[in-house]
């Protein structure tokens, strides 16, 4: 699998529409669709939280900038960007930790 930004952007769009098209407005995620997307696509992320319903409520409230009760693509991208930043922090952190571990073994 090659990692390309273009491919990642395309995937992002495809994933959004796969879930947004299930109910109601085809171009927006309602709460059920958002929950479905989070469970299917970000299961590890939801797995570390004990109360997934509350997390979905919280994410929904945080994301829904224009308060129409649904998450459009623009609002969704904000979530993905925030999660990506969080993942990057984790990546950098564990990378640095690994390097330290290597030094200790020398
Ligand atoms: Ca929808
Ligand atoms: Ca909205």
Automatic annotation (TrEMBL):
GO cellular component, one term: cytoplasm
Molecular-function annotations in GO: calcium ion binding; calcium-dependent protein binding
Superkingdom field: Eukaryota
Annotated Pfam families: S_100
Domain EF-hand: 51-86
SUPFAM superfamilies from the UniProt entry: EF-hand
InterPro entries documented for this protein: EF-hand-dom_pair (IPR011992), EF_Hand_1_Ca_BS (IPR018247), EF_hand_dom (IPR002048), S100/CaBP7/8-like_CS (IPR001751), S100_Ca-bd_sub (IPR013787)
Annotated keywords: Calcium, Metal-binding, Repeat
Annotated protein name in UniProt: Protein S100
Organism whose genome encodes this protein: Parambassis ranga (Indian glassy fish)
Lineage, opening ranks: Eukaryota, Metazoa, Chordata, Craniata, Vertebrata
Annotated gene: LOC114448047
């Amino acid at each position: 699998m090659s990692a390309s930004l273009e491919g990642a952007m395309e995937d992002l769009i495809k994933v959004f529409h796969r879930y947004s098209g299930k109910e109601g407005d085809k171009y927006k995620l309602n709460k059920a669709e958002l929950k479905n997307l989070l469970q299917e696509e970000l299961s590890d992320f939801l797995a570390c939280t004990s109360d997934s319903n509350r997390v979905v409520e919280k994410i929904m409230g945080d994301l829904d900038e224009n308060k129409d009760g649904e998450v459009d693509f623009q609002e969704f991208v904000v979530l993905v960007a925030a999660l990506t930043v969080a993942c990057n922090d984790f990546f950098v952190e564990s990378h640095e930790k690994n390097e330290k571990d290597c030094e200790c073994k020398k």
